[in-house]
Amino acid sequence: MAHQPQPYPLNAEAVRTWSSLSLAALGRAREDIDAINVYPVADADTGTNLYLTAESADRELGDLLAGVTDGTAAATLPEAVRAFAHGALIGARGNSGTILAQLLRGVADVLGDEPAGRDPARLLAQALTRAAEEAYRAVAHPVEGTMLTVATAAARAAEAAAGPTGNAADVAGAAYDGARAALAETPGQLAALGRAGVVDAGGCGLVAVLGALWQALSGREPAPEPVRGRAVPVPRPQEPCAEEHGGPAYEVIYLLEAPEAEVDRLRTRLDALGDSLVVVGGDGLWNVHVHVDDPGAAVEAAVVAGRPYRIRITHFGDERRRARGERSQRAVVAVVQGEGLAGLCGEAGATTLLARPGEPPAVAELADAIREAHAREVVLLPNGAELRTVAAAAAQQARTEGVRVAVIPTRSEVQGLAALAVHDPDGSFDEDVVAMTAAAGATRYGELAVAERQSFTSAGICQAGDVLGLIDGDVAVIGTGLAETAEAVLARMLGSGGELVTLVLGPEAPDELAGRLEAYVQHGHLAVDTVTYQGGRWSAPLLIGVE
Known about the structure:
By secondary structure, this protein is an alpha+beta fold. Helix content is 50%, strand content 18%. The protein contains 20 helices and 16 strands. It has helices at residues 12-35, 46-66, 77-91, 94-111, 120-138, 147-161, 168-185, 191-196, 201-218, 242-245, 260-273, 295-305, 316-326, 339-347, 363-373, 388-400, 413-421, 429-441, 482-494, 513-524, and strands at residues 250-257, 274-282, 285-292, 307-315, 330-336, 350-354, 377-381, 404-407, 444-450, 455-457, 460-462, 467-471, 474-479, 500-505, 529-534, 542-546. Strands 2-3-1-4-6-5-7-8 form an eight-stranded mixed beta sheet, with helices on both faces. A six-stranded mixed beta sheet has the order 13-12-9-16-14-15, sandwiched between helices. The chain has a two-stranded antiparallel ribbon with strand order 10-11. The relative contact order is 0.08.
């Protein structure tokens, strides 16, 4: 590829252009990249994950530059590249997006270190080399024939081009050419790609990002290339279970605030739990991605290490259904408190957003979860009265992006479970929403909580440590023990009838509580069935649903 002399300097504006062009390129290639995604899981979402990661990076960079356009200041190259990398880190999606975030962090490690006066060509080559090195370190078990291989080839080509007569555009062009050549070789390096007749999906996305970098620095547009293998039918699993692909059933992603020493220990714990482990970040903030069979254990390991948030748990069954051509129709997104509940909703086919007590998700987080569902139609289960306004705002934002969204006003996870039980993804959207809304509305919900202080309630004055029994959001019973209070709540709820009692036990609930409550229901209400689930960490001491 012949290059003209560099018309654009390596500065903050170049980073802004690079970001915009990357987002546009990934947007154009998104569906094609999804279509060739076979490794590490054939879930057809690599293009979408890369696009959402780039979108988050572009948004943060745009916010930075918008704040310095008042004529009093101008963003520097270090500020711009750090914002670019940080935005990718906090918005990284999936295995490929997480690796892209670490690649950008490696670039920021070099370009963000006061580069003024240094040779731009040599600086950019060093940045791309650091990016490849950091990405390899972030992946627990690196595999050749992936975007890691493509990144390394790009870095080598960049170093070779950073001679005394080269400029930054030449280096970017060489990196782009090196990446394209490496991408073409990936089917021969990774058996899964060779069998499917496709190149690596993540590497394909990285080529698009490097092409955008070359365009930002040279002013020349890369020639559009077909995604090799996109017309080849990619074999997909026929049934959504973990055994089909020989790997774990869940993808778990979260941000984590923790010191580096704790993160090193976290890597060891997570590596023993599953595969596809990628931990990226630094300076106390990390993005963690792992595939596991026990999502609760993956989150619990994070709690030991530090403070996890923006937790997303996705069951691969739903992803594989989409990969077989069903992915573009309808999805359910549910907000839950409790790792066990997240797993339960995931098994029912929902994309779950795990919220910690007292930390409800923001509009942006809910909107991201809707995007991540990657469907034309989405049913949103907020599972909390306090989330009604947030859910409505997130739904409206998704509608402006062309997604049809219905918010079912579930005020408790047990109402969400009732709605999921009648969810029919093959029926019409309107009929499905009506049926789910009716099921949720027909479910009375109760909850046990422990009073933190003396206060006035609708059932009288409670003291710190009292057990509060809530029915449909209002305190109905004040007691001293979990079991006695739960029985009193059940008696009131079943007084108006019911056919099914759902019990969700939190981590504070004693082991014998479930048996005692099941016996209580059976003794007094012979025609009522009882089902019991474990809510897991962060769930309430006890949730009760009566249908």
